[in-house]
Design brief:
five-stranded parallel β-sheet; globular; three-stranded parallel β-sheet; 3 domains; alpha/beta
């Protein structure tokens, strides 16, 4: 199936029947089960399934009920953002949110930021501002450093005005999108004052600094566009004909990325990472291969990749993510690499909870996709990560659940 969400659990065979049950409950004016709704939204949806979840999200937004966190989101931009509204509702369901998006009038940035008028007629929880380079005005003759500095200052003035207007008019924070990268003419563009590539990079650094100072929140559109590919992200035909800032077909993926930010803002981001051991933290099976037989460290490319993965996991711990181990294994054997292997970066003191036993229960997370899906089916509100092959292939770095 063609899906934009390959990291999610595969689509269940009875997915359509489950959604039909939820739709019937919603049609009766009642809120369906929270876990059941999240589970059908958080699967490898194709285009048809995506549209169905979008309709479900729209309907649930009108029903009162508990479980989901409601988010009223204003969309502000100098291009058309209406294509994002329904995908945001679907992406929210997968993360425990009921997102209702409200687009400001087309090109209403200046009116919202610099006048007393409020283009949003309802209370909001956040205002997402997605601007392209044309909204930031500043003239930038090529090779003119002074003009470039003034243009960046003008961009900062606009961002500050939007953030202040969001606070004063709606009582909520502004989320300001970074500028996507452009296709460079030469490799010297970043070093050329006044070039588009250099200007966008400087504006994005300014937005990052402002977010670090607490002046606004930031949606890193640039990072998402880079991961997807600039030529795929930007659709020049749609941009000029429909004033769409990025490829409409990628709206579900953009919405999922934005929803992860809204979930973090609402306290619904992941707080713990539960790790398997064999072929996840090292290559091989510790119970069969022994301490000397597992592959980790500088003796092989695979071993180095597992060290890189452990370093990545430690970085998550530094950000406040609690680490745990849950493995089908003998406890003493499972702990041996943490205690004795010289190339292990992860140590026992880094692990908050260490569970290694042979119990056949959903609390024991194992590496195979079949059993990972089984765990997810028991606890659909948990995020089950299914890397492409194993941690050594580097796929963990592009896995959205880890971010």
């Amino acid at each position: 199936m063609n899906t934009m969400f390959p990291w999610r659990p595969p689509l269940e065979e009875n997915w359509a029947a489950r959604v039909a049950e939820l739709e019937a409950i919603a049609a009766a004016g009642e809120m369906p089960d929270y876990a059941a709704t999240r589970s059908v939204a958080n699967q490898q949806l194709g285009p048809r399934q995506q549209l169905r979840i979008e309709r479900l999200g729209k309907r649930l937004g009108k029903i009162k009920g508990n479980g989901f966190t409601r988010i009223e989101l204003g969309l502000l931009g100098n291009r058309t953002l209406s294509y994002l509204c329904d995908p945001l509702g679907a992406a929210g369901l997968a993360r425990g949110l009921l997102v209702s998006a409200h687009e400001a009038p087309y090109d209403g940035v200046a009116g919202f930021a610099f006048s007393a008028k409020n283009c949003f007629e309802r209370g909001l929880d956040a205002v997402l501002a997605v601007l392209d380079e044309s909204a930031l005005h500043g003239e930038r003759p090529l090779l003119d450093r002074v003009a470039e500095d003034e243009a960046v200052l003008e961009a900062e003035r606009i961002a500050s005005a939007i953030a202040e207007a969001a606070r004063s008019k709606t009582g909520c924070p502004a989320i300001i999108a970074t500028l996507p990268p452009c296709i460079q003419l030469t490799s010297a563009d970043i070093a050329t004052p006044g070039s588009t590539a250099r200007f966008r990079l400087r504006v994005n650094m300014m937005l990052g600094d402002g977010a670090a100072e607490g002046r606004w929140l930031m949606w890193d559109q640039a990072a998402l566009a880079s991961r997807i590919g600039i030529e795929r992200w930007f659709d020049p035909v749609a941009y000029h004909s429909a004033k769409v800032p990025f490829n409409v077909e990628l709206c579900p993926l953009a919405a999922d990325n934005i929803a992860s930010l809204l979930a973090a803002k609402s306290g619904k981001s992941a707080r713990a990472l539960v790790l398997d051991l064999d072929n996840t933290l090292w290559g091989g099976v510790i119970g069969d291969d022994g301490l000397a037989g597992i592959r980790i460290g500088q003796n092989s490319a695979e071993g180095e990749a597992f060290v890189a993965f452990q370093n990545f996991v430690l970085g998550l711990r530094e950000r406040g993510v609690v680490l745990a181990v849950c493995s089908k294994n003998t406890d003493a054997v499972a702990r041996e690499p943490f205690r004795r292997h010289p190339d292990m970066l992860l140590k026992e003191e880094h692990i908050a909870v260490f569970q290694a036993n042979w119990d056949d229960k959903p609390q024991i997370f194992v590496r195979s996709p079949k059993n990972s899906v089984w765990v997810w089916s028991h606890f659909p509100t948990l995020t089950t990560i299914l890397p492409n092959a194993n941690a050594s292939d580097g796929s963990f770095r592009s896995c959205p659940q880890l971010r």
